[in-house]
Amino acid sequence: MNPYGIAIHGGAGTISKAKMNKWKTQAYYEALKHAYSLGYQVLRRGGKATDAVIEAVIVLEDSHLFNAGKGSVFTHEGKNEMDAAIMDGKKLRAGGVAAVQFVKNPVKLAEIIMHKSRHVLLSGDQALEYAKKHELQIKDAEYFYDEFRYKQLQRALTSDKTTLDHDEGADRKFGTVGAVALDKRGNLAAATSTGGMTNKKYGRIGDSPLIGLGTYANNETCAISCTGHGEYYMRGVVAYDVSARMEYLGETLQEATNYVIHEKLVKLGGRGGLIGIDQTGKVVLPFNTKGMYRGVKLSDGTELASIF
Hints:
- About 35% of the residues lie in helices and about 25% in strands.
- It is built from 9 helices and 12 strands.
- The strands form 2 sheets. An 8-stranded mixed beta sheet has the order 4-3-2-6-5-1-11-12.
- Helix 1 runs antiparallel to helix 2, helix 2 packs antiparallel against helix 3 and helix 8 crosses helix 9.
- It is globular, with a radius of gyration of 17 Å.
């Protein structure tokens, strides 16, 4: 039997054990396990890697615990602007959406863009219209409102700074979400979704919806989903760089991701992590922060849900 499996993340950052009580920790573990379990069931039944990553990411988008979908952060103007992407490693097809509002599951919109649009990336109000055209579920602002997130914005407005989940002294409850998968046919896929940065201005877009930066999949190498300070991931072309090192330098997934996360990204000043899977079912979960919400379930019986 060919190997198959899925890995997920819910963000990397300065996650403090002291601030994670038993109930909060349990809630995160349950959300992570639910997400990778649904994705794994798609694979176990012979489903596609693309469908598996979508199922997993939807679970995380529907949870207030993570900075994606329902739990998305507020912009400087008090809006929820979301980014997402998906990539199919078989044909290198991809779809992305940036700065879209009111779409319940941005990863579904990214999927529709991949399959039905002549473009790879759509953004803003026109992306919302595209979602409505394809009858995706649209929610009002109240659905996305979270008191914790609103207070987080008020604190950021006081200092006039954007904040990340891994900033020292910042609230660290939420994080970008993503999934990578290998199906029974040997196809790879990756998907990423995020609400971006608290107090972001001027239509800022991060790495998550940008193919090759925060999201990438290629059957010849690997599938990657990143989480961290997007500006550094963009400058480092992180997701594709892992694939390129495997393809052109002959590095293993472990070697390539260790270099990119622990050396290259650190030299740039970037903090965060990524998840990756290759054609053999090998999974990597490197991060250079104090923690990363992550989970894995593989056909060889491997199963993991971890934070620190």
